[in-house]
Each structure stands twice: as structure tokens, then as C-alpha cells.
Fold:
Amino acid sequence: MRSDIEIAQAAQLQRIPALVQQHLNIADDHLYAYGHHKAKLSLKHIASLPAKKDSKLILVTAISPTPAGEGKTTTTVGLGDALCKIGKKSLICLREPSLGPVFGMKGGATGGGMAQVVPMEDINLHFTGDFGAIALAHNLLSAMLDNHIHHGNSLRIDTRRIVWKRVMDMNDRALRQMVVGLGGTANSVPREDGFDIVVASEVMAIFCLATSLADLKTRLGRIVVAYNTDGAPVLSSDLQAHGAMAALLKDALAPNIAQTLENNLAFIHGGPFANIAHGCNSVIATTTAMKLADYVVTEAGFGADLGAEKFIDIKCRKADLQPSAVVLVATVRALKYHGGVVVKELGSENLDALKKGMVNLERHLANIKNHYGLPCVVAINHRTEDTPAEIALLEQTCAAYGAQVVVAKHWAEGGAGAVELAHAVVALCEQPNQFQFVYPESASLWEKAKTVAQKIYGAHDIAADAKIRGQIDKLQEQGYGHYPICIAKTQYSFSTDPKLLGAPSGHTMNIREVRLAAGAEFIVMVCGDVMTMPGLPKVPSAHAIDVDTQGNIVGLF
Structure:
């Protein structure tokens, strides 16, 4: 069996300018090429495009992730190819992968098998440099903050209340907590600091929510970096950093265009993590795709609780988007894992475990239909060991929930294997829906967190110690209460305990940290033990990644 990278490297890629001209009737004058197979679409041309009111936005999400895998990105690509195959004008919108997971354990973000976006190795390794630009912009602000303190601190910044860390796009647990400024007065003022991963940066969130270069610059200027000795916030604009930050991000803000194995187009732009950030590709990419295509297929990070809720309550709310349908991806293997089967035994038929694990899928379905108000089809990402009895049980159980099940074979067959899914999605898009947010904007920050915890995660209540509760109340008093919330927690469970599989309920969701993201316009509530700077596993994927004597990347999935 060929690996994903072997399949990708054997693909017959077409030059992006020709594909864009063919599919979208856009001249190459409006493209900035990065080699032959990837390009950026100019912001000036995007601004000239008229709105397309009847474009359908399709959200691909999944059950709670497991080591067995679900294939959400693979399904997004396969569905996009299938829609093109049945004659629909379709575009795909994906996130860019972070190098931390690429070299760690999660893998890349280009799909798999015969449903991939390519050039796979380029996308997974640097791509067009967007993440590098985001890291530079973020760390420029960090440098200007410490520089201001070194040169007299006229803003009276309280060095004990600096909230702006540094970032890098790599998993490195040694950088989570550190001290900077050692070595005497020439090296600035010693203070505690630390690093987050780039995809957790507020600059990344701003980048993905900005609607234009002007909006980007305004949002960058609103970043709160610290508090002064009177307790008042100190902004990026107070340090006069936002203009230079925007200059570093000017080219990166233009969305990237690549292609699938079947030579259909995909926007791949931005990439905040969904467990610690809002987990969606850029608003500019999505809204541009909706001006150019009849069907736009996009994904939210991780499960329909963690990622889809933020897609709904943050991205859709801020960008005035309304999805037409949802595809909920699952595998038989993953559902059996939720039913208590260990990984090494997932290949054997086990109807009892499958039935037990279905509670996870049921909870996600209920959230999508009852709390997001959207029609949904369940896509079973087919594997060769799936048995007829297991598929029949899935279909019967989902029918009882009022959901259609489609077995999709896009991993093995590409778009042809997802044609039935494409027809089901088109039919769903024609149905009226009752799209809604999980909570109203007018609710308090505490009420928003409690509502999400109870409705989406099945929790009994939320909790926070007196210090954190006081911070939440203070943010409410300071005028940030209308912001949506971004819950940062483990992706593996509805609870904050990654070991609680299935559909746990009645738990208490403890909020251990609160972060204001004033530029992104949301409040991050960190729950459980989730880290904003991950570490590498004992055997990282980097061990297998190499380059051969011909310059070809090998070992990349």
C-alpha cells in the first residue's frame, strides 16, 4: 500500500494559473505565484468581486477524535472533488498545518489516500510562509514591548502584569515558562516570560478573522499586551507596533490557492488550533470562495463540540456566515474506541462496543440539530475492515436519531467514492434550516461559558476559583461582555478529562485561566490541563521525515 506522500508525489499536477483561469475565469495578473503549483489571490481582486447570495456553505466536522482516526480533512477534500464530479461549481477551504504537529504526532492537514490537496509536502512544510510572517509579527510586538521597558517605560507598564508571550511554530515544552532579560542592564529588565505555539497566537486569530488589510491593522492595534501600574490596559497601538506588524502580514493576508489530486481548487489559509483557539481557516478565504463558487466545503477543527461550536459562535457570528448543511464524519474504528475497545483490537467486529460508542455520535448529532439548528448527514469514512453488520447497525441507529448515513470511500476512490455523499449534501442544502447561535451576544461572559458547558458538553455546571471569577467579572465590567467566548480544552472528550470517552455528562467544567483577545474580539477560557505550547512525543514524527539524494521529501505520512 502506498503512503500518502507517495500518492501525492505521483499526482499529475497542473499549473495553478491555468487551473484558476479554467475554473474561476481569473487571469494570472491577479495571482502571486509561489512556483508552479501554489499561488496567492490578490486582495485587490478579491475586493472587486461581487457578492454571490446563493452560495452554499457546507461545514465538515467530526465525532470526538481518537487515535483510531476519523478523516475530517480527507472527507472535506473527497466531498469537494465529488461535488465537482457531479457538475457543481465547488471550492474547498482548509486550514494550513502547524509544523509542531507535523513533526510531532498529529500529522499534517492535507487529507489522505486519494483525497488530498497537493503539493502535499510543500503545504505541510512552510507552504507560502504565512506562519513565519505571523510569528514575526507576534514577536516584533514582544520585542517592542521589552524595548519600551528598557528605554524608560514611559507607559508605566507593570512588569508583573505583562500578558503577551512569545511564539514559535514548533512543539517545545522547555519554552513554556522561562526568564528573559538576564545578563545585566544591557539586556533589559529580567522578568518571567514564555512561549506559545504560533497557532495559539492572538495574531493568528486576528489574521483569520480580519476582513481586509485595514481591519487587520485596526485589530492588531487593539491587542492588550500588559497593564500599567494603575491597572489600565496597555495596547499594541500604545507601543506604535501595529503598523509594522501589519506590514509584515500584508502579503500573507492574501489567501493561498492549491489543488486536489483531481485538479480541483482549494483555498488553504490560516490555521488556529481548535482546542486552544477558534480553529477555522481565514474569513477572507471563506468569503472569497463564496463569491466564486456555488458550493463551498470547509472544516472546523476537531469534533462538532470543540471546533464546530467556535465555527458557529465566533466565525459565523463575526463574518455574518450561515452554513447550509453539516457533514459529521465518523469511522467504525473510532466509534468502537469510544465503546471501550483498545486500539490493537479495533480491526475485529464488535457490535456491542460499536453500539456503546454510538453515544458519542448521538451527542454530536443532537448538538448540530438542536443547538446549531442545521441539517446533518453522517459520513462514514470507510475502511476495508468495516463489516456489513457494523455498517447496518450504524445506519439503523442513526435512522433512530433522524439522520441519514452515507458510507463514503473517498480515501480509496477519490471523488468517485463520495458521489453519494455529494448528492446527499446538495439535497440538505435545499432544505430550510433554523440556524442559530448557542448563546446570545447579550449574555454575560459567565452565562456564555455555562451555556456552552451545559448545552454542548453535557456538563452540570462550570467552576472557577475566586481569582479567575474576579477576572471574568472585571472583563465584563470593562466592556468586553459582548464578546463571544473561546473555550480551550482537551479535544478528546466532552469533559476536561481526555480519558472520559463516549458522552460523559454531569461533570463540572473548571475554568483555570482567562485570556482577553481584544484584537480577535473574543475571551479565551482555558479549562482542564490543555497546553498552549505542546510538547513532542517520545517518538516524534520527525524521526521518519527525511530528504533523499534527489531532493525528495520522504517519510512525511
User: Anything to note?
Assistant: The two ends are 13 Å apart (CA to CA). The chain has a mean pLDDT of 95.
